[in-house]
Amino acid sequence: MSLLSTDHRRAANGSERGHGLRAAASVTRSYLWPVLSVAAATGCFSLLRPYVDKGQASLLYLPIVLACAVRFGFGPAILGALLSFLCWDLFFLPPFYTLAVDDPKDWLSLAIFLLAAVVTARLAAQARAQTQEARTRESEIETLFEASETVSRVIRADRVLAALADQLQTLCGATRCLVFRRLGPGVALQLAPDGANEVPIDAQTLGRIASLAEAACANDRVIGLGASQHLWAKAVTDTDASLGGDGARIGVYIPLHAADALVGVLHVGPRGDSRPYSALEERLILTLANHAAVVIARDRLTQQAAEATALREADTLKDALVSLVSHELRTPLAAIKASVSGLLQPGAVWDPDARQEALVAIDGEADRLSGVVNNLLDLSRLEAGAWLPRKDWCDLAEVAGTALDRLPPAEASRVALETQDNLPLVQADYTQIALVLTNLMENAIKYTPSGSPIQVTMRAENDRTNSGQDGVLVTVRDFGHGFALGDEERLFDRFYRGAKHQGGAVHGTGLGLALCQAVIRAHGGRIWAANAPPGEPDGAIFSFFLPKG
Q1: What pLDDT score does 259 carry?
Q2: Degrees to nearest 5, angle at CA 381 with 318 and 366
Q3: Cα 351 to the chain's mean position, in Å?
Q4: Which are the contacts of 367, defined by CB distance < 8 A and separation ≥ 6?
């Protein structure tokens, strides 16, 4: 909100005086035009007086009256009719240059002419008014259409409210238009970002506007101060002692209602030319006020829906984390505890093989715990942007070899790696991509019957769904039971395990695939899952694409 200096206030007052002077000049021109037109026509018609009948002269003035009515309205047309009446009597009815007439029948002609001129002026003025009203209604409908289009197209509420404020200022000639949003159940209001006000607002004026907006909110009624004499039935008059000050410069304050709730206040300042708002302008203000109320209410509902969604997601995450702790962490801890307790039991005699078996079990369960914790930490770091890829040129076949070395020898022997000759290098983080391949291979081994092979293929590819980039496509295929239809996207959610495997004997945290997706997205690639095509053995196929650069 800009502040208004002394020079700005002088400029504003000068602007308002300029509006008033221009309005007065316009009215003067509208009444001066019929005077000059009748005078010029009389001069021209006087030259034709020897050639026209005195009764025909009256017909020469009617077009002037009609033109005045069409161009300037009823008042100037009546003035033109009276002047035409006098000029016809003075210059075309004998005796000339006097108001007297020789023939008494001419009085009847004069009366009929005046009546015809007045009726013509009235009809033409009505037609002009109807035309103007039709244009105004057309403009109003166009404005409401633009407002509705803005409400439906623009998502951010602040931008919509600023656009509505600008439209009101432009169409109604208001010096300012402000929207206040209600913060809570009380009368506290917050000024929404406003549009380009015609005159900057100083801090003192803004404070007074805010206090009156709070009064309109507290009383839940329109405060309509100013020159308008018919500004809504519930408007507070400028004789309300509680408002005080210069009521003529305050403007209008309209409470905004949506779904039986007061959501804010719309303030429309006085017109720049100090004229009252017309009935059409008042209707337009009220209509756009309803639009503003809908925008504020929609924004509130959107925020509430986002908060509800966040709470549901947090609740789901909490349940998943509790399930993870209760199963995937407690189970290995229980196994470790049982083995260690047995080893520490006084007087227990362990043969070397049994002791070695217990230690191997402890080591395996500790590795399992370490893997869960590492996946949690890695996923959190990726999502927080703390583990950004350090890209360098990599040979994915070499990365796959590193991932295989991390697997137990018995499991690594089940993996068949097939790479295309002259496989192109890609820019990637060696460590992160090795983690992705390790997780995908472990996932395939976990859900594949013992002894079934795992196929890993790598080939150059042009990814048409990713802006046509060149890169490498990697697929990991197992020959297990696949996953349920509809799980293609959910498999990459945190803590989610496929519907076929929930509660099954295969342990899992639901973090490995989520971590893979986060890594691949950080590299600008994409990852997806699919069941084996019809006609081929059952199984799941996990694929990811990495661009070269």
Answers
A1: 76
A2: 70
A3: 73
A4: none
